[in-house]
């Protein structure tokens, strides 16, 4: 679609509405992740950091910062986007959106853009919070921003898909809590995979979240569990899969027209 022919007023209306909802639930949207991250630093930094002083020349407290940011980014992106599109379905206002003079692409840009913005802001807030606990360096700030935005957009698209797929509040919580969070914990958030036995190192390579955390940590310290180009390729592959799924949903009307 030609950008000049896009309904930017419609996109902005959806975007502003979703961002306004964040400010109405400021405590839950922003303060809660910051408190959770602070607790991670207190518990893991004090308990494990006393036993593991450094990993690949980086202090343990600084080593876990990219993983904690990515953990929060993944869960917040999915949750924000899923709830954003689920509530119009739940209340029936989704039919007003679908019948408005706005294309599926513009709807997705509005909802996913708002969810990605929220999670990115939270990611930066956590980065600032972490700087009060440990000294950090960012060797590749441009790539840090690229990986941050790509991850936020990709998992916001995943959340959008989950919000359309879900037919109850239980399903909205199922994937973020029982799939994404465990994968993040097992994907190198708190350790380097070369600390695992060889068999488990191989098993961990099948965890897609490993590639996100590894690339993001590389942008900070120049160290990675997986080649950064492989990680970038995996991120783009997942992004493409999410875009293809969203296109299929609007083409078939899956759980939108019934």
Report what the structure shows:
With 258 residues, this protein is mainly alpha-helical. The chain has one domain. The protein has helices at 8-24, 26-47, 60-91, 94-99, 104-131, 141-165, 169-185, 198-204, 208-221, 228-252; strands spanning 54-55, 58-59. Strands 1-2 form a two-stranded antiparallel ribbon. The protein is globular and about 60 Å long. The two termini are 27 Å apart. The relative contact order is 0.14.
In short:
The protein has 258 residues and is an all-alpha fold. The chain has helices spanning 8-24, 26-47, 60-91, 94-99, 104-131, 141-165, 169-185, 198-204, 208-221, 228-252; strands spanning 54-55, 58-59.
Name the features.
258 residues; globular; mainly alpha; 10 helices
Structural class: mainly alpha
Mean pLDDT: 88
Number of strand elements: 2
Compute the number of structural domains: 1
Instruction: Give, in spatial order, the strands making up the sheet with the most strands.
Output: 1-2
What does the overall shape look like?
globular
User: What is the strand content?
Assistant: under 5%
């Amino acid at each position: 679609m030609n950008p000049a022919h896009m309904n930017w007023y419609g996109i902005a209306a959806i975007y502003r509405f979703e961002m306004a909802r964040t400010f109405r639930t400021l405590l839950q949207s922003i303060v809660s992740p910051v408190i959770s991250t602070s607790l991670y630093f207190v518990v893991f930094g004090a308990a494990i950091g006393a036993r593991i002083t450094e990993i690949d020349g980086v202090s343990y407290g600084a080593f876990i910062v990219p993983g904690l940011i990515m953990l929060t980014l993944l869960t917040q992106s999915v949750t924000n986007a899923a709830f954003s599109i689920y509530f119009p379905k739940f209340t029936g206002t989704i039919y007003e959106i679908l019948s408005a003079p706005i294309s599926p692409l513009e709807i997705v840009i509005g909802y996913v853009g708002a969810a990605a913005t929220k999670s990115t802001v939270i990611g930066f807030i956590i980065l600032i919070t972490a700087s009060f606990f440990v000294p950090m360096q960012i060797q590749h700030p441009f790539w840090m921003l690229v990986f941050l935005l790509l991850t936020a957009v990709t998992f916001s698209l995943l959340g959008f898909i989950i919000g359309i797929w879900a037919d109850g509040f239980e399903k909205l919580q199922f994937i973020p809590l029982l799939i994404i969070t465990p994968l993040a914990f097992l994907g190198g958030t708190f350790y380097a995979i070369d600390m695992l036995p060889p068999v488990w190192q191989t098993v961990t390579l099948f965890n897609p979240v490993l590639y996100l955390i590894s690339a993001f940590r590389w942008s900070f310290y120049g160290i990675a569990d997986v080649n950064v180009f492989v990680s970038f390729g995996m991120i783009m592959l997942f992004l493409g899969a999410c875009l293809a799924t969203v296109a299929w949903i609007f083409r078939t009307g899956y759980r939108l027209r019934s």
